[in-house]
Amino acid sequence: MTLLPDPWWPVAVLALIVFGDGVMTFRPPKAIAACLDGVGLPRDWWWVLAVVKFLAAAGLVAGFWIPGVGLAATVGIVVYFLAAAWSHLRARYIGRDFWLNCLGLLALSIVVLVVSFLV
């Protein structure tokens, strides 16, 4: 296990994706709005998801220089998408958004954790 990402580029890709996801969550297009409504998240709380994603992306970037921060951010992203998957399952909202977006980003986050920090 390492406290600085090696290789660094999977973490950079994840940071870009999570930041972009945060931008789309802040002003969600119809597909993301439908997903958030589908899992029953109140519209008053949507902004919180965007803030969490922006902070996660910042943590991933800070982790290039500060040991342990990128690892913690990556673990946090894995936990975030596990919670999102649980929300989808609990709400029985398991269409394309669940399989492609939620589980896809969960899988990507786990791969980044393993490749950049655990191997």
TrEMBL record:
Instruction: Report the subcellular localization.
Output: Membrane
Membrane-protein topology: Multi-pass membrane protein
Coiled-coil annotated residue ranges, if any: none
Per UniProt, the keywords (alphabetical) are: Membrane, Transmembrane, Transmembrane helix
Pfam families linked: DoxX_2
Listed GO CC annotations: membrane
- Check the record and name the InterPro entries matching this protein: DoxX
Quick one: where is this thing mainly located?
membrane
Q: Where are the transmembrane segments?
A: 6-24, 71-89, 98-118
**What name does UniProt use for this protein?**
DoxX family protein
Query: Which organism encodes this protein?
Result: Brevibacterium casei S18
